[in-house]
Amino acid sequence: MKELLLSILLVSTSFIHSQYCMLAGPTTTADSNVKSVQMTGVLGTISYLGCPGVIGVQNLTGQNVTLNAGGTYSLSVEFGTCGNNYVGVGQIWIDFDQNMVFDPSESVGTWSGIPPSVATVYAINVPINAQNGITRMRVTQKEGGVLPLDPCASFQWGSTMDFGITIANGMDCSGYIGDNTNDPIVVSSIPFTDSRDNSYCYSNDNLVYNSPDIYYRYDVAPIYNFLNASLCGASFDTFLSVVDLNGNVIAYNDDHCGSQSSLSFSTLGLGTVYFIVEGWGSEMGNYTLQIESSNVGLDDVSQNNSIIYPNPNHGQFKVSSTGHVKIYNLMGSLVFETELLNNKDINASELPSGTYFLQTESHESLQKLIINK
Q1: Alpha-carbon distance 372 to 345, whole Å?
Q2: Which of 104, 198, 261, 310 is a plausible cystine mate for 253, CB 3.0–4.6 Å?
Q3: For the domain with range 185-295, which CATH number is right: 3.20.20.210, 3.40.50.1970, 2.60.120.380, 1.10.8.60?
C-alpha cells in the first residue's frame, strides 16, 4: 500500500519546483500574536513590532541580517497578543541548508506560556556547514497549540512570519550541479558511478518527500534493452525514481537492499530520462549511484541486409541511407554523428579500431560497424 500511494504521489508531483510553504499561518487577526522580533547580525538588523495581526504568512524578508557560518547570535522574540490572553506555544526555524523546507533539525528555539510575557532571548548557533546565500527564518506562534509546531500549518489564532537571513563564510555551493532538471548531472556513458552527499547544497525540487533531491540526465542509447540503477550501501533511507521529460514516472523503488533503493526498467521507446535520488521523508546523507545496463549483444544486432559497406573497414565507408547517422560505442556513448545523402562516403577515421553500433533515421534496426585499421 505504501508503494502504491508513493506511485500516485510521484505522478502528481514530479517536476514541481520547490518553494517555501506560504499557505500557512492564522486565519484571523485576533488575540495571540508575536509582539516583537529583534536581531542584529554582522550586517543588518531585524526590528519587528507586532499588532495589528496579519492573516497567513507575513512576508518580512525585506528585513535581513547577515550571519557568519560557525557564529553565535542573539535573537529576541516576544510572544504576545493583539487582544485577549490565551495559553499558546511558539517556535522558530532557520533554513540553513536552503532547501526551502524548515526541517525539524533547523528549529532554533521554542516557547510556551500565556501572554503577556517577557521577551525570550535565544542563542542562535549557525552551523559551520550552512550554505552561503539568502535564506529565511520563520517565527510562528499558535494559540492553544502543542510543540513541536508544523511550520507549514494553518490555524485560527496566532502569527507566522518570515524574515531574511544571509549566510556568509559557509559552504560555497556555486559549483554543485544536479539540483534540478535545468542543471542535471549528465550520465555520459554506461556503466556509470557517482558519489555525493545531498545533505547540503541541494534543494527539494521533486516534492514526493521533504528530502533534498539530486537529478541525473541520461539520453538513452538504443543499444540497451534495460537499465539497472542502485543506491545500495547509502548511509540513509533512500528513494529512487526515474521519470521522462514530462515528469511521467517510468520506475521507482523505496526499499530493496535494506532501506536503500534499487530498480530495473525497460528502455524500449525511451529517449531522455531523469534519475532522481532523494531520501524517505527528510532523510539525507552520502550515497553512490550505480547505473548499469544489459545491451542488445552482438548476436542481436541486425546481421542481414547490412546497409554499411565495406564492413569491416578502416573508418571510411558508405551507408545506403539518408538523413541523420549516429555511431555508438559498446558503452552506449554517442561517438560520431553526421548528416548524409544516399551512398555518400562517411569518414569516421578518427574513431579507433573496434566494434560500434550504427543507427540511421530510415532503418529501425541497429547495424554492427567494425573498424579495423
Answers
A1: 17
A2: 261
A3: 2.60.120.380
Tell me which architecture the domain covering 298-371 has in CATH.
Sandwich (2.60)
First to last CA, the chain: 58
Residue 8 pLDDT: 36
Q: What is the reported pLDDT for 87?
A: 97
Assigned CATH for 18-168: 2.60.40.3880
Low-confidence residues of the chain: pLDDT under 70:
1-18, 294-305, 342-343, 364
3-state helix, strand, coil in the chain (%, to 5): 5, 50, 45
- Under DSSP, the state recorded for 62 is E
The residues of the chain that CATH labels 2.60.120.380 are 185-295
- Asked if 15 and 69 touch (Cβ cutoff 8 Å), the reply is no
Which one-letter DSSP state was computed for residue 298? G
Residues pairing with 220 in the sheet = none
C-alpha cell belonging to residue 194: 557517482
pLDDT tens for each residue of 23-34: 999 999 999 999
Q: Which residues contact 319 (CB under 8 A, 6 or more apart)?
A: 307, 308, 325, 340, 343, 344, 346, 358, 360
Q: How many angstroms separate the Cα of 77 from the Cα of each of 26, 34, 111, 183, 270?
A: 18, 8, 9, 39, 55
Q: Choose among 117, 100, 111: nearest CA to 152.
A: 100
pLDDT, position 282: 85
The CATH 2.60.40.3080 portion of the chain extends over 298-371
pLDDT at residue 22 in the model: 95
